[in-house]
Amino acid sequence: MDNMERDTLIVYGHDYCWQSQLLKRALRDHHIEHEWRDVVQGDPQYQIDVKKLARGYLSVPTVIFPDGTVMVEPMPDQVLNR
Prior knowledge:
This protein has 82 residues and is of the alpha+beta class. The protein has a single domain (9-81), classed as Glutaredoxin, CATH 3.40.30. It contains 3 helices and 4 strands, in the order βαβαββα.
């Protein structure tokens, strides 16, 4: 995980989390570019990153916005409104 400003959202989630899947679908439906990081099937570093961002919990979805702000377990409308 780096602190550099990015052009796209980073979304940590996994395929068995309904809230992650809702967010993934909403971003796709609204044509919002994002990088999906699967904390179960992806790089093991993703779990470490999420735990740092979510105060020690493996909370998904966790979203990092291009400006570096973070939302933990947001509903799709919260991300879209941001």
